[in-house]
Amino acid sequence: MAGRRHHALLVLAAVVSTSCSLLGAHLMRPGEQEEAIPVIPDMMMRPQHIPVPAVPTRTVAEICRGTSFPELCTATAGKQAARYGTVDVLTVLQMQVDALGERTKAARARVDREAAAATPAGRKALHQCNSFYGDVMDNLDACRRAIGHKDAVTIRSTMSMVAQDLQFCDEEFRKAGEKNPLQQFDQSLGNMSEICRSLSNMIVVD
Ligand SMILES: *[C@@H]1O[C@H](CO)[C@@H](O)[C@H](O)[C@H]1NC(C)=O
């Protein structure tokens, strides 16, 4: 009995000493350590003279993960992220509002192009949508001011009005009995306004 326990201890000691020497050899091997610690971000390992992006897009993605359309949010912010020094909920919100403004301008340009070939009813609907888009632009300005004040309630109400304007535009075409040629715009703008609503819920007021 005693002999068997002694034998077991010897085996254990041998295993421990073998693993320790393996571990020691592993740590001492040059170049191994970097591969052994995968959590160090690549940018921290880079020499100083190589410029790194001011904003790791990972952070934008992390913020966007909490919104209703994470991929759309990240793609939208990604184009602008480099202009911002730090990325937080408010800056991502600004990026989304700026992108909403750009997309709304594109929608208005589309209105002009569609109007030429439209039926009288279609042209009337396009004209109405154009004025709704004007409303959207006003609400985006109000939203920008609200972001400056970290005023989540006002941000949400401006975004509700934006979403409503987009629905009104859709309704104009339904009333006219025509397919809405701006539907893609209205959908993506609506989704972007949802992203802004989600982001407004994440604002921390200190
Ligand atoms: C907007 O969101 C809806 C789901 O609510 C989705 O079906 C649609 O593809 C999205 N459209 C755009 C243009 O992002």
UniProtKB/TrEMBL annotation:
One MF term from GO for this chain? enzyme inhibitor activity
Signal peptide location: 1-24
Q: Domain (Pectinesterase inhibitor): give its ranges.
A: 55-199
- Any idea which UniProt keywords this protein has? Disulfide bond, Signal
**Tell me, what's a Pfam family for it?**
PMEI
Matching entries from InterPro entries are given as: Invertase/methylesterase_inhib, Pectinesterase_inhib_dom
Q: Which family does it belong to?
A: Belongs to the PMEI family.
This chain belongs to which protein, by name? Pectinesterase inhibitor domain-containing protein
Record organism: Eleusine coracana subsp. coracana
Q: Which gene encodes it?
A: ga23860
